[in-house]
Amino acid sequence: MDYDLIVLGLGPGGEAVAGSVAEAGRSVLGVDERLVGGECPYFGCIPSKMILRGAEVLAESRRVDGLAGRAQDTPDFAVVARRIRTEATDDWDDAVAVERFEGQGATFSRSHGRLAGRTDDGRLRVEAGEETHTASRVVIATGTRPALPPVTGLADLAVGVDDLVWTNREVLRTPQAPESLVVLGGGVISCELAQGFARFGTGVTLIEGGSRLLGREEPEAGEVLSAVFEREGIDVRLGSQVQTVAAGGKGVVVTLADGSSVTAAKLLVAAGRTTNLDHLGLETVGLDPQATTLDIDEHMAVPGVDGLFAIGDVTGKGPFTHVSVWQARVLTQHLLGQDEEFGGYDALAWATFTDPEVGRVGKTEQEARDAGSNVRVGVQQIASNSRGWIHGPGNDGFVKVVEDADRGVLVGATVVGPYGGEIIGMLTVAVHAEVPVATLRTMHYVFPTLHRAVLEAVQALA
Ligand SMILES: Cc1cc2nc3c(=O)[nH]c(=O)nc-3n(C[C@H](O)[C@H](O)[C@H](O)COP(=O)(O)OP(=O)(O)OC[C@H]3O[C@@H](n4cnc5c(N)ncnc54)[C@H](O)[C@@H]3O)c2cc1C
Ligand SMILES: NC(=O)c1ccc[n+]([C@@H]2O[C@H](COP(=O)([O-])OP(=O)(O)OC[C@H]3O[C@@H](n4cnc5c(N)ncnc54)[C@H](O)[C@@H]3O)[C@@H](O)[C@H]2O)c1
């Protein structure tokens, strides 16, 4: 059949663009081989944050001593697992999402989609399962899957909720917290879930090959998290290469390059992602079939391939739901001939929902220096800010602002602390709108608030 638009992959970005364009009256086919909604609602953002909300409540209850009397907690992960199953994922059933999607006027195909060259009149051809369709415009929004690193023995172990090895897709379906867990990787997924499970009583060992946690963030952020994790009983092994994994002991035995080994009930592999660009027929439209990301312009068009667009994690612009839906909005406006609200990526912001949270916008100090800027930085510790000091236990962290001193504007900032993912909002405005640092100094900042540490960091710029 012929459509105005075919969208491959209905994660947050694909679903948004397909649904909006269909609502505008165009004929749209949306293809997804798994669940409409993609990684975020079923295996990512939402269920992981439900774990972290439970873990946060437990941590707060453990701070009652010394602040408000005494409290006792009896962690029960089954409560969180039930919430994830019933409230968030509908037992990993997307019937409601499919109904919503079709209600927008789109056609849905649950199948593997791939490009299949062009028709004689130049329309793009797409195979969806057994069927072949055509469209003048096709969007690739196929996202990522967990990467399994080349560790000896890993491929021999089964991956499943009841098996020894978990990725994000299994750990977020577990009905119980395991007694012990080895987490391979020290990135965002690892840090969030390591702390989440540890607070529910799981004995967690986290193994990171690099020299710090959250390698993409300011080095100080990883240092704060390492200290907090160790204080909470997580065994953090930095600069540790996993040599082999094998079934043994009470679960899985992980041997490190230094010869030491760790045994745990489960192994969570969170060592990065692989983009779903393989098996996609990229070569049939002249693209490199080995590509790991797709280049896009400001309209989300893939340069050199007429009618082909890409959004979301496959673009490599920022592996976050809000980037995918932002790109979907710009693309929808482009496809419908409306004004496009493209704001660029210089003020890209995100958060890691550990406790303390790590909020980030724009460049780190090193990235700004590497870009050739004349850099000044200002730092304020959360514990030295009035509200942070009042907060007491849990006030680890800092605000760090990075200024391009020649232009007198912030080009990046990091907030590690309680509500760091919220406080970064005002700094995102500052970086995005290029608010002069001189103006930031003249603003009112409520006392006593955590966000007042932004003023204190700005005043410390040197
Ligand atoms: C544990 C975890 C926690 C996360 N937490 C956050 C968070 O707190 N905040 C945040 O912003 N981001 C978070 N993310 C990242 C976020 O989930 C992704 O950035 C987002 O889902 C990417 O959206 P997308 O539109 O690229 O597609 P995806 O969500 O990756 O969906 C792609 C869809 O394409 C389908 N597909 C793939 N190939 C084909 C094919 N050939 N044919 C048909 N269908 C296909 C898949 O089945 C899938 O449904 C988290 C990720 C994980 C794993
Ligand atoms: N809060 C959020 O917005 C959020 C939450 C979770 C995930 N995500 C997104 O999902 C993506 C995937 O997250 P991730 O944590 O899997 O990847 P990541 O790239 O953030 O981290 C992977 C880590 O694993 C380490 N590693 C890789 N191979 C290793 C090995 N053999 N031994 C030891 N360490 C090894 C790497 O050094 C790296 O630090 C991220 O890019 C993130 O943006 C976002």
In a few lines, what is going on in this structure?
The chain has 462 residues and is α/β, with parallel strands linked by helices.
So how many helices?
Answer: 14
Look at the structure and name the CATH superfamily of the largest domain: FAD/NAD(P)-binding domain
CATH class of the largest domain: Alpha Beta
Unreliable spans: none
Structure description:
The structure is a single chain. Strands 1, 2, 3, 4, 5, 6 and 17 form a 7-stranded mixed beta sheet that branches. Strands 8-15-9-10-11 form a 5-stranded parallel beta sheet. Helix 1 runs parallel beside helix 9, helix 3 packs antiparallel against helix 4 and helix 3 packs across helix 7. The chain has 14 helices and 22 strands. The model has no long low-confidence stretch (mean pLDDT 98). The termini are far apart. The protein is an alpha/beta fold and 462 residues long. The structure holds flavin-adenine dinucleotide and nicotinamide-adenine-dinucleotide (NAD). The site of nicotinamide-adenine-dinucleotide has 27 residues, from helix 7, strand 10 and strand 18. One of its GO terms (molecular function) is flavin adenine dinucleotide binding.
Give the helices and strands, then pairings.
Layout: E1 2-8, H1 12-23, E2 28-31, H2 39-43, H3 45-61, H4 77-88, H5 95-103, E3 107-109, E4 113-118, E5 124-128, E6 131-140, E7 144-146, E8 165-166, H6 168-171, E9 180-184, H7 188-199, E10 203-208, H8 219-231, E11 235-238, E12 242-248, E13 251-256, E14 261-264, E15 266-269, E16 273-275, E17 308-310, H9 321-335, E18 349-352, E19 357-362, H10 365-370, E20 375-381, H11 386-391, E21 398-404, E22 409-417, H12 420-432, H13 437-442, H14 452-459
Parallel strand pairs: 1-2, 1-6, 2-3, 6-17, 8-15, 9-10, 9-15, 10-11
Antiparallel strand pairs: 4-5, 5-6, 7-16, 12-13, 13-14, 18-19, 19-22, 20-21, 21-22
Helix pairs in contact: 1-9, 3-4, 3-7
Bound molecules: flavin-adenine dinucleotide and nicotinamide-adenine-dinucleotide.
